Amino acid sequence: MKLTIIGHWGGYPKAGEASTGYLLEHDGFTLLLDCGSGVLSHLQRSIDPTELDAVLISHYHPDHVADIGVLQHALLIQSFLGKSNGTLPVYAHNEDAQGYNSLTYRNLMKAHAYNEQSSLAIGPFTVTFVKTKHPVPCYGMRIEAAGKSIFYTADSAFRDSFISFGKDADLLLCECNFYGNMDASGAGHMTSLDAGKLAEEAGVKKLILTHLPHFGDLEQLVSEAKTIYKGDVHLAKQDMEIII
After folding, report:
1. Are 178 and 184 in contact (CB under 8 A)?
2. Which of 15, 29, 101, 171 has its CA 20 to 30 A from that of 6?
3. How does pLDDT run across 125-153, given as a tens digit for each residue?
4. What is the domain extent for residue 15?
Protein backbone atom coordinates (compact mmCIF):
# COMPACT_ATOMS: atom_id res chain seq x y z
CA MET A 1 0.00 0.00 0.00
CA LYS A 2 1.10 3.54 -0.73
CA LEU A 3 -0.24 6.43 1.35
CA THR A 4 0.17 10.02 0.17
CA ILE A 5 -0.62 12.90 2.54
CA ILE A 6 -2.72 15.36 0.51
CA GLY A 7 -3.69 17.53 3.50
CA HIS A 8 -3.07 17.27 7.23
CA TRP A 9 -4.27 20.45 8.96
CA GLY A 10 -7.03 20.57 11.54
CA GLY A 11 -9.88 23.06 11.19
CA TYR A 12 -8.63 24.93 8.14
CA PRO A 13 -5.63 24.66 5.82
CA LYS A 14 -2.41 26.57 6.20
CA ALA A 15 -1.79 28.95 3.27
CA GLY A 16 -1.00 26.98 0.13
CA GLU A 17 -1.84 23.62 1.74
CA ALA A 18 -4.95 21.56 2.58
CA SER A 19 -6.95 20.25 5.49
CA THR A 20 -7.70 16.54 5.83
CA GLY A 21 -7.20 14.27 2.82
CA TYR A 22 -5.15 11.13 2.16
CA LEU A 23 -4.67 9.10 -1.01
CA LEU A 24 -4.28 5.35 -0.58
CA GLU A 25 -3.17 3.23 -3.54
CA HIS A 26 -2.74 -0.51 -4.04
CA ASP A 27 -2.79 -2.74 -7.11
CA GLY A 28 -3.76 0.19 -9.32
CA PHE A 29 -6.79 1.11 -7.16
CA THR A 30 -7.03 4.67 -5.76
CA LEU A 31 -8.97 5.47 -2.57
CA LEU A 32 -9.33 9.01 -1.18
CA LEU A 33 -9.79 9.26 2.59
CA ASP A 34 -11.69 12.45 3.41
CA CYS A 35 -11.86 15.49 1.16
CA GLY A 36 -11.30 18.69 3.11
CA SER A 37 -10.55 22.26 2.06
CA GLY A 38 -7.84 22.48 -0.60
CA VAL A 39 -7.68 18.72 -1.10
CA LEU A 40 -8.86 18.69 -4.72
CA SER A 41 -6.22 21.22 -5.79
CA HIS A 42 -3.40 19.26 -4.17
CA LEU A 43 -4.79 15.86 -5.16
CA GLN A 44 -4.08 16.77 -8.77
CA ARG A 45 -0.36 16.79 -7.98
CA SER A 46 -0.73 12.99 -7.66
CA ILE A 47 -3.66 11.95 -9.89
CA ASP A 48 -6.47 13.36 -11.98
CA PRO A 49 -9.81 13.40 -10.09
CA THR A 50 -11.34 11.14 -12.74
CA GLU A 51 -8.77 8.50 -11.81
CA LEU A 52 -10.25 8.04 -8.32
CA ASP A 53 -11.88 4.65 -7.81
CA ALA A 54 -13.57 5.39 -4.47
CA VAL A 55 -13.86 7.95 -1.65
CA LEU A 56 -14.21 7.20 2.07
CA ILE A 57 -15.57 9.89 4.42
CA SER A 58 -15.19 9.82 8.22
CA HIS A 59 -17.66 12.63 9.06
CA TYR A 60 -19.16 15.86 7.77
CA HIS A 61 -17.15 18.64 9.37
CA PRO A 62 -15.93 21.05 6.66
CA ASP A 63 -12.26 20.28 7.14
CA HIS A 64 -13.10 16.73 6.02
CA VAL A 65 -15.72 17.35 3.30
CA ALA A 66 -15.36 20.96 2.09
CA ASP A 67 -14.08 19.88 -1.33
CA ILE A 68 -16.73 17.24 -2.03
CA GLY A 69 -18.76 19.76 -4.05
CA VAL A 70 -15.59 20.86 -5.82
CA LEU A 71 -14.81 17.22 -6.69
CA GLN A 72 -18.34 16.83 -8.05
CA HIS A 73 -17.86 19.85 -10.31
CA ALA A 74 -14.51 18.48 -11.50
CA LEU A 75 -16.16 15.20 -12.45
CA LEU A 76 -18.99 17.08 -14.19
CA ILE A 77 -16.69 19.28 -16.25
CA GLN A 78 -14.48 16.35 -17.20
CA SER A 79 -17.56 14.36 -18.27
CA PHE A 80 -18.49 17.24 -20.61
CA LEU A 81 -14.96 16.93 -22.03
CA GLY A 82 -15.46 13.21 -22.62
CA LYS A 83 -13.38 11.98 -19.68
CA SER A 84 -15.16 9.84 -17.10
CA ASN A 85 -14.49 6.80 -14.94
CA GLY A 86 -18.18 6.06 -14.40
CA THR A 87 -20.04 6.66 -11.13
CA LEU A 88 -17.64 7.31 -8.24
CA PRO A 89 -18.70 5.44 -5.06
CA VAL A 90 -18.45 7.42 -1.82
CA TYR A 91 -18.66 5.49 1.45
CA ALA A 92 -19.90 7.41 4.49
CA HIS A 93 -22.17 7.07 7.51
CA ASN A 94 -25.80 8.18 7.16
CA GLU A 95 -26.29 9.53 10.69
CA ASP A 96 -26.30 13.03 9.17
CA ALA A 97 -28.94 12.79 6.45
CA GLN A 98 -28.13 16.15 4.88
CA GLY A 99 -24.42 15.43 4.70
CA TYR A 100 -24.94 11.90 3.42
CA ASN A 101 -27.45 12.90 0.75
CA SER A 102 -25.12 15.64 -0.52
CA LEU A 103 -22.62 12.98 -1.59
CA THR A 104 -24.84 11.64 -4.40
CA TYR A 105 -24.55 13.80 -7.50
CA ARG A 106 -26.20 13.10 -10.87
CA ASN A 107 -24.76 9.90 -12.34
CA LEU A 108 -21.24 10.94 -11.31
CA MET A 109 -21.14 10.17 -7.58
CA LYS A 110 -23.16 7.75 -5.44
CA ALA A 111 -23.25 7.50 -1.63
CA HIS A 112 -23.06 4.12 0.12
CA ALA A 113 -23.67 3.86 3.87
CA TYR A 114 -21.50 2.11 6.44
CA ASN A 115 -21.83 1.69 10.21
CA GLU A 116 -19.75 0.31 13.07
CA GLN A 117 -20.67 -3.27 12.15
CA SER A 118 -19.68 -2.87 8.49
CA SER A 119 -16.84 -4.69 6.81
CA LEU A 120 -16.43 -3.30 3.31
CA ALA A 121 -14.50 -4.62 0.34
CA ILE A 122 -13.43 -1.52 -1.57
CA GLY A 123 -11.27 -2.68 -4.44
CA PRO A 124 -8.29 -4.52 -2.88
CA PHE A 125 -8.99 -2.97 0.54
CA THR A 126 -10.95 -4.41 3.46
CA VAL A 127 -12.29 -1.64 5.69
CA THR A 128 -13.74 -1.93 9.20
CA PHE A 129 -14.98 0.91 11.42
CA VAL A 130 -14.94 2.18 14.99
CA LYS A 131 -17.08 4.98 16.42
CA THR A 132 -15.02 7.91 17.64
CA LYS A 133 -15.63 10.47 20.40
CA HIS A 134 -16.32 13.74 18.59
CA PRO A 135 -19.02 16.44 18.72
CA VAL A 136 -20.68 14.90 15.64
CA PRO A 137 -20.93 11.24 14.54
CA CYS A 138 -17.52 10.21 13.22
CA TYR A 139 -15.79 6.94 12.45
CA GLY A 140 -12.19 5.80 12.53
CA MET A 141 -11.27 3.03 10.15
CA ARG A 142 -8.87 0.14 9.76
CA ILE A 143 -7.84 -0.46 6.17
CA GLU A 144 -6.13 -3.71 5.21
CA ALA A 145 -4.61 -5.08 2.01
CA ALA A 146 -1.96 -7.71 1.20
CA GLY A 147 -1.41 -8.46 4.87
CA LYS A 148 -0.73 -4.81 5.82
CA SER A 149 -2.94 -2.46 7.83
CA ILE A 150 -3.54 1.22 8.55
CA PHE A 151 -5.58 2.57 11.46
CA TYR A 152 -6.85 6.07 10.67
CA THR A 153 -8.40 7.57 13.80
CA ALA A 154 -10.22 10.41 12.01
CA ASP A 155 -11.25 12.99 14.66
CA SER A 156 -11.66 11.82 18.22
CA ALA A 157 -10.77 12.12 21.84
CA PHE A 158 -8.92 9.07 23.19
CA ARG A 159 -11.01 5.91 23.49
CA ASP A 160 -9.91 2.63 25.07
CA SER A 161 -11.67 0.76 22.24
CA PHE A 162 -9.04 2.13 19.83
CA ILE A 163 -6.35 -0.06 21.41
CA SER A 164 -7.85 -3.39 20.38
CA PHE A 165 -9.16 -1.97 17.10
CA GLY A 166 -5.69 -0.78 16.08
CA LYS A 167 -3.76 -3.73 17.51
CA ASP A 168 -0.50 -4.39 15.66
CA ALA A 169 -1.35 -2.06 12.76
CA ASP A 170 1.55 -1.32 10.45
CA LEU A 171 0.69 2.40 10.52
CA LEU A 172 -1.30 4.54 12.94
CA LEU A 173 -2.46 7.75 11.23
CA CYS A 174 -3.48 9.55 14.39
CA GLU A 175 -5.09 12.91 14.89
CA CYS A 176 -3.05 15.18 17.17
CA ASN A 177 -4.73 18.57 17.46
CA PHE A 178 -3.43 19.45 20.93
CA TYR A 179 -0.15 19.48 22.86
CA GLY A 180 0.52 17.19 25.80
CA ASN A 181 -0.23 19.70 28.55
CA MET A 182 -3.65 20.61 27.13
CA ASP A 183 -7.13 19.13 27.70
CA ALA A 184 -8.34 17.95 24.29
CA SER A 185 -11.17 15.65 25.35
CA GLY A 186 -13.84 18.33 25.55
CA ALA A 187 -13.16 19.32 21.95
CA GLY A 188 -13.27 15.69 20.80
CA HIS A 189 -9.58 15.56 19.89
CA MET A 190 -6.33 13.97 21.07
CA THR A 191 -3.07 15.29 22.43
CA SER A 192 0.42 14.15 21.53
CA LEU A 193 0.46 12.08 24.72
CA ASP A 194 -2.85 10.41 23.78
CA ALA A 195 -1.38 9.54 20.39
CA GLY A 196 1.76 8.12 22.00
CA LYS A 197 -0.29 6.07 24.47
CA LEU A 198 -2.48 4.64 21.69
CA ALA A 199 0.52 3.75 19.53
CA GLU A 200 2.36 2.09 22.43
CA GLU A 201 -0.57 0.13 23.84
CA ALA A 202 -1.80 -0.99 20.41
CA GLY A 203 1.71 -2.07 19.45
CA VAL A 204 1.68 -0.33 16.07
CA LYS A 205 4.80 -0.27 13.91
CA LYS A 206 4.77 3.43 12.96
CA LEU A 207 2.97 6.58 14.12
CA ILE A 208 2.14 9.54 11.90
CA LEU A 209 0.73 12.59 13.71
CA THR A 210 -1.85 14.45 11.63
CA HIS A 211 -4.80 16.90 11.88
CA LEU A 212 -2.20 19.28 13.27
CA PRO A 213 -2.72 22.49 15.26
CA HIS A 214 -2.01 25.97 13.88
CA PHE A 215 0.07 27.11 16.86
CA GLY A 216 3.19 26.18 18.75
CA ASP A 217 6.26 24.21 17.70
CA LEU A 218 4.94 21.13 15.91
CA GLU A 219 8.14 19.19 16.57
CA GLN A 220 7.16 19.31 20.24
CA LEU A 221 4.26 16.99 19.38
CA VAL A 222 6.75 14.37 18.19
CA SER A 223 8.98 14.65 21.24
CA GLU A 224 5.97 14.42 23.56
CA ALA A 225 4.58 11.34 21.81
CA LYS A 226 8.01 9.71 22.04
CA THR A 227 7.97 9.96 25.82
CA ILE A 228 5.40 7.11 25.72
CA TYR A 229 5.74 5.42 22.32
CA LYS A 230 9.16 3.96 21.60
CA GLY A 231 8.61 3.37 17.89
CA ASP A 232 8.92 5.52 14.78
CA VAL A 233 7.07 8.88 14.99
CA HIS A 234 6.69 11.51 12.25
CA LEU A 235 4.65 14.62 11.58
CA ALA A 236 2.38 14.41 8.55
CA LYS A 237 3.59 16.72 5.79
CA GLN A 238 2.07 17.70 2.48
CA ASP A 239 3.00 15.25 -0.32
CA MET A 240 4.64 12.83 2.13
CA GLU A 241 4.58 9.31 0.69
CA ILE A 242 4.62 6.23 2.91
CA ILE A 243 4.93 2.68 1.63
CA ILE A 244 3.32 0.13 3.92
Report:
1. yes
2. 101
3. 999 999 999 999 999 999 999 999 999 99
4. 2-243
